[in-house]
């Protein structure tokens, strides 16, 4: 048995771009950034950011294009695929993407385009959107 499943929760790095294939199928692409916080050996808090390429097809792609905006929090479930192609200069190119199978939108940003509380731009991600657990989880603390 094999399993190819990805679940990411992060903020959109750009507005979704939607296109229609020659066969009439909608395909929407966008990026999501995820942050990982950890403590290094000197007990200094560090942050690592990963950028993910998302592809949504059909009705899901239409919904993503209509409702998602840069900076918005979103949960995407899907599968990982790597595309390969040959560039005009003859080099082989690779791109790893998450093919979305399900998407949930995070809380709305701001109210009707007006700046939200704290004077943030309506497209700026709020740090408070995702709780950060400061302590490292130890295996002995897991209840099962």
Which helices and strands occur, and which strands form pairs?
Elements: E1 6-12, E2 17-20, E3 26-39, E4 45-57, H1 58-67, E5 73-86, E6 92-105
Characteristic key phrases:
mainly beta, globular, single chain, 5-stranded mixed beta barrel, 144 residues, 6 strands, OB fold (Dihydrolipoamide Acetyltransferase, E2P)
Description:
The chain has 144 residues and is mainly beta. It has a single domain (6-124), classed as Beta Barrel (OB fold (Dihydrolipoamide Acetyltransferase, E2P)). It is 7% helix and 46% strand. Strands 1-3-4-6-5 form a five-stranded mixed β-barrel. A hairpin with a 5-residue loop joins strand 2 (17-20) and strand 3. It is globular. The model is unreliable at 112-125 (pLDDT under 50).
Can I get a quick summary?
By secondary structure, the protein is mostly beta strands. About 5% of the residues lie in helices and about 45% in strands. It contains one helix and six strands; from the N terminus they run ββββαββ.
Backbone shape = globular
- Across the major sheet, the strand order is 1-3-4-6-5
**Remind me, CATH topology?**
OB fold (Dihydrolipoamide Acetyltransferase, E2P)
How many whole angstroms does the radius of gyration measure? 18 Å
Mind telling me which CATH architecture this is?
Beta Barrel
Q: How would you name the CATH homologous superfamily? A: Nucleic acid-binding proteins
Percent strand equals over 45%
Helix content: under 10%
What is the first-to-last residue Cα distance?
25 Å
How many DSSP H or I helices? 1
Please give the domain count: 1
Order of helices and strands: EEEEHEE
Structural class call reads: mainly beta
Reported for the largest beta sheet, the result is:
5 strands, mixed, barrel
């Amino acid at each position: 048995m094999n399993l190819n499943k990805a679940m990411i929760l992060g903020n959109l790095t750009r507005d979704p771009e939607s296109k229609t294939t020659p066969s009439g199928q909608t395909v929407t692409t966008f990026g999501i950034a995820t942050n990982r916080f950890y403590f290094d050996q000197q007990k200094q808090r560090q942050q690592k950011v990963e950028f993910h390429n998302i592809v949504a097809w059909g009705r899901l792609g239409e919904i993503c294009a209509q409702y998602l905006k840069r900076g918005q929090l979103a949960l995407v479930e899907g599968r990982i695929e790597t595309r390969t192609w040959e560039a005009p200069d003859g080099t082989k190119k690779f791109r790893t993407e998450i093919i979305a199978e399900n998407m949930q939108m995070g809380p709305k940003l701001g109210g009707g385009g007006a700046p939200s509380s704290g004077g943030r731009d309506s497209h700026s991600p709020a740090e408070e959107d995702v709780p950060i657990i400061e302590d490292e989880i130890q295996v002995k603390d897991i209840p099962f």
